[in-house]
């Protein structure tokens, strides 16, 4: 579920990037690059922690999951470019494109919030080692680190 949610999120990011232009494009590319690196690291940790059932089958599954994540954003960009250039030519209404970009960004943010809170945080805090054998001090440190990360990302949004 986490993999598919993050892949759908990356696809929507690619679609959003394909319809963005001007100064917004530059800031969006830098934000997406920074974001995708940490999202990829997080997902890579989850994929590498998959249980080992059969040596060969799990190795191929991990490779497929890595490749699927890597190609999702470029696929979204390609689909967006094909859809918006073929469908409406070069005379696309700016207000309409801004509305589409806003809707895609909202959908993308919602999917990421769901994946982060339900799949990752619940997995770590409730079902993972942090919840069962982590201890109160470790849990407080983890919550503090989480809130610090949220604060840093919020400050980055004000800088933009």
UniProtKB/TrEMBL annotation:
Keywords of the record: Membrane, Signal, Transmembrane, Transmembrane helix
UniProt GO cellular component terms: plasma membrane
Mode of membrane association: Multi-pass membrane protein
Keyword rRNA-binding applies: no
Subcellular location: Membrane
Membrane-spanning segments: 63-83, 103-128, 140-159
Signal peptide positions on this chain: 1-22
GO molecular function: zinc ion transmembrane transporter activity
One Pfam family recorded for the sequence: Zip
Entries under PANTHER family matching the protein: PROTEIN ZNTC-RELATED, ZINC/IRON TRANSPORTER
Protein name per Swiss-Prot or TrEMBL: Zinc/iron permease
């Amino acid at each position: 579920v986490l993999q598919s949610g993050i892949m759908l999120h990356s696809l929507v990011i690619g679609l959003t990037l394909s319809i963005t232009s001007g100064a917004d494009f530059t800031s969006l590319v830098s934000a997406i690059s920074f974001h995708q690196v940490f999202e990829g690291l997080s997902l890579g940790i989850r994929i590498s922690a998959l249980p080992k059932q059969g040596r060969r089958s799990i190795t191929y599954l991990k490779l497929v999951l890595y490749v699927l994540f890597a190609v999702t954003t470029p696929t979204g960009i390609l689909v967006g470019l094909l859809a918006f250039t073929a469908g409406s030519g070069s005379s696309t209404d700016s207000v309409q494109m801004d509305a589409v970009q806003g809707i895609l960004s909202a959908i993308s943010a919602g999917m990421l919030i769901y994946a982060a809170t339900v799949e990752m945080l619940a997995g770590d805090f409730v079902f993972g080692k942090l919840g069962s054998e982590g201890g109160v001090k470790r849990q407080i440190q983890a919550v503090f680190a989480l809130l610090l990360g949220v604060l840093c990302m919020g400050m980055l949004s004000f800088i933009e």
